[in-house]
Amino acid sequence: MWRISTVRTKLSSDASLRSDSRRRSMFMSSWRIRSSFCRRLAKNEAARMAALVEAEKECNLELSEKLKGVTKNWEDVPG
Predict the structure, then answer these.
(1) Distance of CA 19 to the CA centre of its chain
(2) Is the torsion defined by CA of 60, 63, 68, 71 positive or negative?
(3) Which of the two residues, 71 and 2, has the higher pLDDT score?
(4) What confidence score (pLDDT) does residue 69 get?
(5) d(C-alpha 48, C-alpha 42), whole Å
(6) pLDDT at residue 1, rounded to an integer
(7) More confident residue, 63 or 5
(8) What are the tens digits of pLDDT across the range 4-54?
């Protein structure tokens, strides 16, 4: 009787090890998917931020040109 219970315990522990291994492999594969998604998301966000910076630079250049024209007009006013 003792041997049968020992065998059952060993079989159940082997089954739990297999299920732990499955859980671990599922976790690792989902982690890889999430990390690749996060890398892709970070690249997209970096590209979007770079485009915003470039657009802001262009707007600032246009605005500074307009302001130069306004200040020139004020310098021409007698006063």
Answers:
(1) 31
(2) negative
(3) 71
(4) 78
(5) 10
(6) 44
(7) 63
(8) 555 455 555 555 656 777 777 777 777 788 888 888 899 999 999 999 999
- Measured in whole angstroms, the distance separating CA 72 from the mean position of its chain's CA atoms is 47
Distance CA 75, CA 16 (A): 85
Q: How far apart are CA 54 and CA 64, in angstroms?
A: 15
Q: How far is CA 50 from the centre of its chain?
A: 15
Question: Which token pair is 35?
Answer: 């990390």
- What is 6-60 written as a DSSP string? HHHHHHHHHHHHHHHHHHHHHHHHHHHHHHHHHHHHHHHHHHHHHHHHHHHHHHH
Give the pTM. 0.47
Two tokens, residue 12? 């159940």
Which residue type occupies 17?
Answer: L
